[in-house]
Amino acid sequence: MPGKALRVMLCAWSCLLAGQASALGVGDIILHSALNQPLDADIELLDVGDLGADEIEVRLAGADVFAAAGVERLQFLNELRFSPVLQGRGGNRIHVSSIRPVQEPYLNFLVEVARPNGRIVREFTVLLDPLGYTPRMLPAARSGIEPQRQSSTPVPAPRSAAVVVDPALLEPGDEYLARPSDNLWAISGRLRGAGNADRAQLMEALYQLNPQAFVNADRHRLKAGARLRLPAGYQPERGAPGAVKEAAVEVLPPADAAVVENAPAALVEAQRQADAEAEALARQREELSQRMDDLQRQLQALQEQLQQRDHQVAELQQQLARRQAVRPAAPPPAAAAPSVAQPVETPTDSQYWRWMIVLLLVLALLGVLLLRRRREEAPVPAVEPKRRVALNLPLRRAPRPPAAAPAPAKVEEQARPPVAAPSSPPPSPPPAPAAAPRAAMAAADKLDGADIYIAYGRYGQARDLLRQVLAEQPQRLSARMKLLLVLAELGDAAGFDALAEETLASGGNPEAIDELRGRYPALLQMPATETPAATTKDDDWSDLPLAESPVLQQPDATSGADGFGDLNLDLDLDWGALENPLDNPDLPRRAAAGKAEPAEEPLAFESNLHELPDVAEYEHLELDQPEPATVPPEEASASLDRARACIDSGDLDQASRILRLVVAHGDPWQKAEARELLALIA
């Protein structure tokens, strides 16, 4: 058989290496442990000579040596430990041990002993008996078979207790072909017969019936392929799992022994194929075992990497939480400087992905802040052009008062405001401090509440909220524009003019304020008690009280020329806010103050404002369209239906315009319904 030939070659090679290794030899193995116990055995070392323990290396043979010898390399064999013990003459040995208990009753392994001049490979077979099992050799006279001693190697002394074998078991019966993995324990476990012999008696009977099937009469070293004579009346169980695995085992009666010897070549070939398949399966099993070990190591490495990544992600989350906790609130839009992205340090290759995550989070945060700022600075929605009032038409002169009245001329001299000297500009108001984060959040909440009140037509509550916001953040232009819209809805012309003047002084958009004036004609009506202002002999623009005008404020010395250079005649002036100099009770005090100041210096710019009239008559202004009258209820209901149709079709702008007309000119019920629709599409 190929396996047997390989073993012969391996033994010859071992003997050759042993001869080259200064006569170092390896003896038999002596077992000191039983089944289900950690392995404890000693291998004799022969002719050690002057070698030391550090010069002798003992280990389990490699997988290629096992494959060449046809021996299966079990996974448990990797746990065997070999330790050379040198104690002088007769005490040199190799101690074999294991940590885990041995579960298999049969162990077959190859040991490699290396020294400086060569190495020795030796095969050992160990049969582990159950705890308490003590076999005893019976006299040879009972069986008629004398065991043949093929070697002078001493066999371990028999144990004190003996196993009594029934003489009937020593009668030969059927034959059994031993496989490489068979041993007495396994064979006796598969035997079934009419007798009541226990397993220990069957093992002892098998050994006594077949002494020639064991190497050096060692019951632990059964020869592979040996034909064993079974006790009379016992046969292997065919239905057992072991019988299925050993499909090549053939049991024949004694009368057919001659037929077995003359078996055809086909059976021998089948046996070889079975052996080859068994070896291939053993190699595949070993490869699969090694792959499993590799996969387990890789899985452990991946788990360690995942744990490291989890720690890194946790650290990043903690850093992000700390940065968000200490992040300052966004400054108000009026005093906010343009956002500049902080330079990001160049990350290293090992931390590149970490900095990328942080950068993305910072960019997302900046985007949210910019969107919120744009929402706060969003201008008041513009109305359609057809409703704008053309305030830039040329104004007509008002008729002059009678020249016989002396009082206006005197009052004119006293009412003329002194021009501020360039060397003493008025102090500019200090910049508004930045709001705290909590104040900014509270102001934003109040603005949202004001939007809700405006949508439902509750302008009084909206005015109160917006005034609170301006009290906390006076520089907030968005709140000023919303308050202007609310004052226009309430018809508070005086409050609108005062707030418009403050808004323009704070940098507000004059076009947006003009559009609000045009949308609400009530803001353009002149007070009934106002009288035409007195003028001087010449039509000089200096007759107007420039110091109290909401539009033409006296600029400082540094920006005087630039401020008047941008002035045009299309500017919408709030002429209703001009006061009659004759009715002003503070004129004597101002006249006295004017006398105390130095004489006026000529201005450093030229202006053609003197061509304008002294007083503008708004009752003669021509508007693009007359003030609309109240819309009939039927027309307002039709407008509501058109607005609903526009909402259904997706034209929200047209729907918003129609609903605003209904809010301005409908009855209370229609106004409430229009406000609800406006709130839905807001």
From TrEMBL:
Record field: compositional bias (Pro residues): 419-434
NCBIfam families: FimV_core (TIGR03505), FimV_Cterm (TIGR03504)
Protein name: FimV N-terminal domain-containing protein
Transmembrane segments: 352-371
Keyword presence, S-adenosyl-L-methionine: no
Domain of life: Bacteria
Signal sequence interval, chain numbering: 1-23
Biased composition regions of type Low complexity, renumbered to the chain: 315-328, 590-599
Organism: Pseudomonas aeruginosa (strain ATCC 15692 / DSM 22644 / CIP 104116 / JCM 14847 / LMG 12228 / 1C / PRS 101 / PAO1)
Ranges of residues in domain FimV N-terminal: 24-130
